Amino acid sequence: MSKMNPVTRRGSIAILAVLSACAALPHAAAANDQDSNHQRRISIAVPEFSDSPPSGEVNAREMTEIIISDLKASGRLALLDPHELVEDNIDVAPHFDKWRSIDAQSLVTGRIVRKPDQRVMVEFRLWDVASGQQLVGAQYVLQPDDWRRVPHAIAEAILERLIGRS
Fold this sequence. Notes:
Elements: H1 6-40, E1 42-45, E2 50-51, H2 60-73, E3 77-80, H3 96-100, E4 106-114, E5 120-128, E6 133-142, H4 150-163
Parallel strand pairs: 1-3, 1-4, 2-4
Antiparallel strand pairs: 4-5, 5-6
Helix pairs in contact: 2-4
């Protein structure tokens, strides 16, 4: 075994200590990000949009599923199962007590309506369940063939309002 001089040995130990500390930093940063993201998750309920009478080419269930998928992909929202709770009338404030009972912080309501000229109107509202206030809402009027863009636009508007980005 060769002898190391004391300076080289101390230098090697110092380098190993620095490398060990640096190797632990990314893991610690990732853990902190995960913890902070977990704490910031907002619980949101997205019941199926109403579609009365059914508007044909535009499928309320599929539209709702696309919105939910986009919101889940953000990783910042906790999607709640609405337990068959439905808000049939988007023109009045929801029954917030039943949404509080499943710990929803936010609620999305929406509907699809076929217009007399065969265009389709899709509208949604995002609600703060605690305050009972509407946070954002929009209405889209489009040709039935163009409906697939709308749920993505709705999800972007929700993400922008709740977490400040889409």
